[in-house]
Amino acid sequence: MRLSELANLAIVDLDNEGERIKVFGKGRKERYVEYTKEAKRAVWRYMAYRDDKLPNLWLTEEKTPIKAAGIRIALTRLYARAGFKVKDVAHIFRRTWAMRKIDEGVPLKYIQIIGGWEDITTLDIYVRAADADKALKAMKR
């Protein structure tokens, strides 16, 4: 999901019984994204530290809703601590997710829907990059 979508999540958007999260994308378009067991566990751990009844899922230390820029800063700092210098951390997550789904053979149309891309052109670029990586690996054998 996009940073703005992540920042705007409300607790009620989580489907704790199922495997999806309701997301409001560009133009407030509603869609659903994966909610893996690992993500659920992480959210539950985070929620265990919360002592409030605020509707937003992600809050700052001051108990105000976090903004996309705040998430970007936090991710950039985490990457820096790990020794990486990355320009757009959030985009790496979206791209990696899409590339993994492409490698798993998920139809591009489904990836487009779940990822919230209006135009499949972006995914075509990812497919070409994945094909180039596979071609290079095959040539090394």
Q: Could you characterize what this model shows?
A:
With about 140 residues, the chain is mainly alpha-helical. It has 2 domains: about 1-85, hpI Integrase, Chain A, CATH 1.10.443; about 85-140. The chain is built from 6 helices and 2 strands, in the order H-E-E-H-H-H-H-H. It has helices at about 5, 35-50, 70-80, 90-105, 110-115, 120-140, and strands spanning about 20-25, 30-35. It has a two-stranded antiparallel sheet. A hairpin with a 5-residue loop joins strand 1 and strand 2 (about 30-35). Helix 4 crosses helix 6. The chain is globular, with a radius of gyration of 17 Å. The termini are far apart. The mean pLDDT is about 90.
Compile the SSE list and pairings:
Blueprint: H1 3-7, E1 20-24, E2 30-34, H2 37-48, H3 68-81, H4 89-103, H5 108-115, H6 121-140
Antiparallel strand pairs: 1-2
Helix pairs in contact: 4-6
Distance between the termini: 36 Å
CATH architecture of the largest domain: Orthogonal Bundle
User: Which whole number gives the mean pLDDT?
Assistant: 89
The string of secondary-structure elements, in order, is HEEHHHHH
Q: Helical amount among residues, as a percent range?
A: 40-55%
Structure, briefly:
With 141 residues, this protein is mainly α. The protein contains 6 helices and 2 strands. The protein has 2 domains: 1-83, Orthogonal Bundle (hpI Integrase, Chain A), CATH 1.10.443; 87-141.
